[in-house]
Amino acid sequence: MKINLKSSSQRWFLLLLVIMIFITVATGGVLTYLLYETAFEEQRGRLIEAAQSQARLIEAVARFNASSGNYKDLQEAAVATRSQIIDAHSHYKGFGETGEFTLAKKEGDQIVFLLSHRHHDMNDLKPVPFDSEIAGPMRQALCGLSGTIVGYDYRGVKVLGAHEPVEILNFGIVAKIDLDEIRRPFIRAGLIGGSVGMVLIAIGAFLFRFISEPIIDDLHKSHKQLEEFNYNLEKKVQEEIGKNKEKDRLMVQQSRYAQMGELLSMIAHQWRQPLNAISMAAIEISLSDSGDENELKLKREMTKFIEKQTQYMSEIINDFMNYFKPEKDRVLFGFKDVFDDILMLIGPQLKSRGMKIEFLYDESVVFLGFKKELEQIIINVVSNSRDAYIDQKITNGIITIQVEDHPDHVRLSIADQAGGIDPDIIDRIFDPYFTTKEKGTGTGIGLYMSKEIIERSFNGAINVENIENGTRFCISLPKTEKASFA
Ligand SMILES: Nc1ncnc2c1ncn2[C@@H]1O[C@H](COP(=O)(O)OP(=O)(O)O)[C@@H](O)[C@H]1O
Ligand SMILES: [Mg+2]
Predict the structure, then answer these.
(1) Which among 51, 68, 410, 420 has most CB atoms closer than 10 A?
(2) How far apart are CA 53 and CA 164, in angstroms?
(3) Is residue 398 one of the residues assigned to a domain?
(4) What percent of the chain has pLDDT over 70?
(5) Considering only CA atoms, which of 452, 327, 460, 464 is closest in space to residue 384?
(6) 430: how many CB neighbours lie within 10 A of its CB?
(7) 230: Cβ–Cβ under 8 A, 6 or more apart, which residues?
(8) Helix-helix angle 293-323:335-352, to 10 degrees
């Protein structure tokens, strides 16, 4: 699996940045909002105070004018009060940037403004219909309500206004300020704070990158090294596997050569007799040359004999060729067939040295497997016994092959009386190339290949033990299902 450290670290970095920006924005937003709320409440308090104190002041002036006796009736006193108040306020610019007082009364279904500091020509104050959307705070005041609302003022601008009825004169007074003015500093603070935050995040991100880049690079490097190492390791393993396969192949080839050598020696043994007979016959033919009728008859017989002998030799070759044809499938076979083949192949050679094989088996026992492979194994083991007898200069050696049938396996034992194997080397005789024989006679492959075939093709086992005066090889061949039902 290939991991791209660089791109994954970049992804993490981006995610971190997004999280940092989110936290900054959220904290800044909440903080600004809380401050704004506090400022808003303070402003509301101030407006209430201002509206109420103005209302009480106007009421006091009105009361004073009414009771002063300077005016002929209440109506005149009210007009005087109104002009005094307007006069007083004409010197007052309002508070803040947009804060002002407005004073109005209800005339019919209209709100008629008497005072406004900032936005009207004082000589031409426009009335507002009572049941309209605008001049909300004043409507509240003229309805006799005291308090604050956020609504549209006479201009249709959103304001925070404190409204207070002015008794005696039946006026309403409103102290109001544009909502925008309250909000503006906070929006500004938010924007400044946000920008500073972003700049700090950018600097922080840069520093973070600056610091983490070499670390990530290092990581990347060691990751790459590890990958390379893994790759090399795998290559090495593959190489070794390849080498092993090559070794196996070589071994099989060598064993085939060894087997071929055995084969040639067996053929040579079997040909010796007919070849002798042929050459004798040929000599006889060449010696008898008298032209006599009997001679002629003898010659004809001799030629026939030669023909028969050569026929026999070619049959031997055929038998051997047949035997060495590769086999593809398992076959069901009895052990008589196996022993017949073995006798055909190696019997003459043994006989010529005075040795013989003794078979002990039950003819009814059958086995499912690679017959020729098993025969090759038996020949390998038997030829070792033969070699041991030759080595020990024993001429009438007997090799005993016994078959025991068990419910789940067949046990084959091959024993000789050729002196046994030195206990020092007995553990190594199945090793490849292990031989005690002279160069040219032994290859050390026979038992190794036999063991391989038994384990791989038959799923079985082979082992060796020294018995009295000799050696016994035991081959255990598990029965496959089909065989045990057969
Ligand atoms: N029946 C036996 N008696 C004595 N020695 C044996 C016998 N069978 C095998 N050995 C020993 O095992 C060795 C290995 O046998 P093998 O693998 O067939 O190779 P090779 O026959 O070419 O030496 C022989 O060289 C021999 O020393
Ligand atoms: Mg051998």
Answers:
(1) 51
(2) 10
(3) yes
(4) 94
(5) 464
(6) 18
(7) none
(8) 130
Half-sphere exposure of residue 223: CA atoms within 13 angstroms, side-chain side: 12
pTM beyond 0.85, yes or no: no
14/450 Cα distance (integer angstroms): 67
CATH of the domain at 404: 3.30.565.10
Residue 459: inside a domain: yes
For 308, half-sphere exposure in the C-beta direction (CA atoms, 13 angstrom radius) is: 9
Ligand 1 centroid to Cα of residue 246, in Å, is 25
Our CA angle for 284, 287, 288, nearest 5°, is: 85
In a domain, residue 323? The reply is: no
User: Which residue's C-alpha comes closest to atom 24 of ligand 1?
Assistant: 435
Instruction: Give the separation between CA 239 and CA 228, rounded to whole angstroms.
Output: 16
Residue 484: per-residue pLDDT: 42
Q: Is the confidence at residue 375, as pLDDT, over 70?
A: yes
For ligand 1, atom 2, which residue shows the shortest CA distance?
A: 385
299 pLDDT band, cuts 50/70/90, is confident
The residues lining ligand 1, judged by C-beta closer than 6 Å to any ligand atom, are 380, 384-385, 388, 416, 418, 421, 429, 434-437, 442-444, 446-448, 471
Ligand nearest to the backbone CA of 417 = 1
Give the C-alpha separation, 117 to 115, whole Å: 7
**Domain boundaries, position 355:** 329-485
Examine residue 72 and state whether it is found in any structural domain, yes or no: no
Cβ count near 133 (within 10 Å) = 11
Give residue 471 CA to ligand 1 midpoint distance, Å. 10
The residue among 419 and 300 whose pLDDT is bigger is 419
Q: Which helix (H) or strand (E) holds 55?
A: helix 5-68
Sign of CA dihedral 174, 179, 185, 186: positive
Per-residue pLDDT tens for 159-210? Answer: 999 999 998 888 999 999 999 999 999 999 888 988 898 899 889 888 988 8
DSSP-derived 3-state class of residue 102: strand
